[in-house]
Amino acid sequence: MAEPSSVTFGELLRQLRTDTGLTLEALAARSGIAVRTISDLELGKAQYPRAATVSRLVWGLRLQEPVKARFEAAARGRRVAEGLPVGGTAPPRTLPRDVASFTGRLPELAQLTSPRPAGGGVVNVHAIGGMAGVGKTALAVHAAHQLAPGFPDGQVFLRLDAHTPGRQPVKPVDALASLLQTAGVDTRQVPPGLEARATLWRHWVAGKRLLLLLDDAVDSEHVRPLLPGTAGCLVLITSRRNLTALEDAHAIGLDVLSAQDAAGLLIRLADRPGLDPADPAVAHIVHLAGYLPLAVGMLARRLHHSPAWSPADLAADLAQARDRLEKLQSERMSVAAAFDLSYQDLTQRQQRFFRRLGLHPGADTDAWAAAALDDIGLAAARRQLQALYDQNMIGEATRGRYRFHDLIRERARALAAQDPAAERAAALGRLLGYYQRAAARAESRLARQTRPQPVDTGSPAASAPGLPGLAGRDEALAWARAERANLLACLDHAAAGGEHARVVALTAAVAALLRLDGPWAEAIGSHAAAAESARHLGARLGQANALDDLGTAQQLTGDYRRAIQTHEAALALYRDLRHRLGQANALSHLGYAWSVTDEYPRAALALHEALDIYRDLGDRLGPVDALNHLATVLRLTGDFPGAAKMLEESLGLCRESGNRQGEGNALVYLGAVRLRTGDYRLVAQALDQALVIYRQLGHRLGQANALSYLGAAAQQVGDYPAAARAQQEALDIYRDLGHRLGQANAVGDLGIVHRLTGHHAEAAGAQQEALGIYRDLGDQMGQANALNELGALLRIGGDPGAADARHQQALDLARRIDSSWDEAQALAGLGRSDLAAGKVAGARTHLGQAREIFQRIGAPEAPGIAAEIDALGAPGGP
């Protein structure tokens, strides 16, 4: 076995001197030994130095154990092993203290502390980026203390002061001087110039296991010269900028704390007995602090030093503040000042862009909206957004959509308020104009009917920016949903500023989105405000359009009586204006509302008139809804063939024009007709197609309608588990949307499944719930259905007299609204109640009347009723 290589005293002396960065002259000055003597010792000309000389050299080289013992052994003539650590001074350990209050950050700590081998001699570098006050340094220091045992050659912390008030960032050349001196290199031996110092630094670090923490770097170039050149070292860098130009660096983006961790940090730092993370005031405080560690810490210290204040007091004080940032300061620390240091890093153009974004009424922005705000091109806006993102002044929640942290937004708005009022007004005008035009384009792709020409606001600027293409319905809907909060925020801003024309135009531009996604109660408020703004302007067409949209929203919430009044007011305005397209739209909506309130003749008349106008005008969108609604009237009055014919025409128009939503609606209505005629295979086929379309479109109300009818079809063929699943899914969507008629229908159908599966108590509860909703809505057909079901349950429960009363109520309602199917159902129920009470003649009469109606309308119940009559035997019984 080969002997390990060794070094002589002279070789060890030279290695220790150069490793420490000392020249012969510098070591001579330190130790008081002549240059010639040291040179002779290194060259081996003097092999056995005196003890006093060795002691002086130990002092001059600042040797610590165990290197001191090896050095003295070599001086006595022993050869010492080569390749062992030869650092002359004690390993530097300059990390700041860790804090016991450190909270959270477990995923980030795992990334920093998990082994990460660096192949090919590459130094491990972790770049921790994030906004001001997010806790980058705290994380880096905490991780460094955990990692310290793995780096015996030292742990070095260097503050680069990119954002220290009153200081300029430390220049790389000066940072290298500090690092060399920390390593033990004599100040007089630190060479001048960046390259020379970087070379010496890399030489000193070579072969060592050193942890280097570079805190608060300006950018990648600020730290590049400071990096070791060989593997074995770990470098942690913190910066407010994303160090995207630093090769092989592992980036860790630090966000604000979770709500739970922020509450934990507040409680630890406040150090007050009884402070509970479940206290709503604690949650409110950390929310108002934006979950930002710097802000949370300031508020925690305020609680700690203000025992007279409760958490509720502090939360209320912060919530009522006109400027939260004024409350977030302590001694010489301030959240606003921390943000301002980041703001000062920006160029003047970037600063203006930052201030413009602060004017945005909404929560986030894309490049189109940003371009409008700053009156620049789309490509320039993208570059500016990327620049702010790289400096962690904004975040990118989803691709291409950027948002401020709440507190940074407050600072941006405060800075923007210092700009001239005319500039602010012009920027906001461009933004609102952009949203108005883009939303109108999306609306044109989403609308179920052609909208009468909206009122011209006269506001588009000559330098108005372009618009996103929104080529088809899917793209338009995706854009509208992404911009929903911004569109409503802009609408609120326009309303607060008394911009009536803008309110009218913006509300019209979001009508389809509000109809699709709701919440419809809020849509009612928006359309009512738009109608009032149009009235204020004397814009009668805009008022009629807003009223028509308002009536549609009222229908969706189940307020059919008020919806009819609203649509009638819209129709009157359209007629005064002789606007035939508007008349057709209002008539179509009125026809639907009258059909739901069981006024079938009026509904049919209105829908036929609407169809005639649409056809005269050559309009291709309007006839679809009119045909669908007219088919519903025919179905409800027992004309199933006529209804199917109308729906086949509607389907043809939709498929010819690519109207996918209209196609889905027609398929659902067709499924409802086939459900009445007993074509259950065709029912499922139509409804499955509709469900696919609705899911592709993201149309939740359509999905619920299709599911509801699918459940009814499954119930008819005896697949009760499938029926219950479909109805429950439909019910969940209806409740989420606030669609009360849908809720009642789904609850009633679930009640039928409960009855058929023997769960009579649950069935009765469901039908009572459905009946209550139908009565609230004034839906007589729905009431008849629920009453018939309650009658069946009472008969099964052994109370035929009470059952008879329910069926009679249902019969009266059905005849009042001329609903043949419901009339037959009530008569069948009366016949069964008679039979249960032993009244065979009455049973035969009522069942015979039911059979006659079912046969006339072609309903599948007819054979079953005939079988019940046959089972009664020949006439003449009691």
Structure description:
The protein is elongated. The longest helix has 26 residues, at 421-446. Mean pLDDT is 88; it is low at 83-88 and 455-464. The chain is 65% helix and 5% strand. The chain is mainly α and 878 residues long. A hairpin with a 2-residue loop joins strand 8 (329-330) and strand 9 (333-334). It contains 43 helices and eleven strands. A five-stranded parallel β-sheet has the order 4-5-6-3-7, sandwiched between helices. The chain has a two-stranded antiparallel sheet with strand order 1-2. Strands 8-9 form a two-stranded antiparallel ribbon.
Keywords:
5-stranded parallel sheet; mainly alpha; elongated; 43 helices; 878 residues; two-stranded antiparallel ribbon; 5% strand
Short summary:
The protein is mainly alpha-helical. Helices cover 65% and strands 5% of the residues.
Topology (SSEs and partners):
Blueprint (H helix, E strand, L loop, with lengths): L5 E2 L1 H12 L3 H8 L3 H9 L7 H11 L5 H9 L4 E2 L24 H8 L10 E6 L6 H12 L7 E5 L12 H11 L11 H12 L5 E7 L2 H4 L10 E6 L10 E4 L5 H12 L9 H9 L4 H13 L5 H10 L3 H4 L1 E2 L2 E2 H10 L3 H11 L8 H8 L3 H13 L4 E4 L2 E3 L2 H11 L4 H26 L26 H10 L1 H13 L3 H10 L1 H7 L2 H18 L2 H17 L3 H18 L2 H17 L3 H18 L4 H15 L3 H18 L2 H18 L2 H18 L2 H17 L3 H18 L2 H17 L3 H18 L2 H17 L3 H18 L2 H17 L3 H18 L4 H10 L7
Average pLDDT works out at 88
Tell the overall outline.
elongated
Radius of gyration from the CA trace? 40 Å
Give start-end ranges of low-pLDDT stretches.
83-88, 455-464
Helical fraction equals: 55-70%
Largest sheet, in brief, is: 5 strands, parallel
Distance between the termini: 120 Å
Number of β-strand runs: 11
Number of helices: 43
Give me the side-by-side strand order of the main sheet.
4-5-6-3-7
What is the beta-strand fraction? under 5%
Output the structural class: mainly alpha
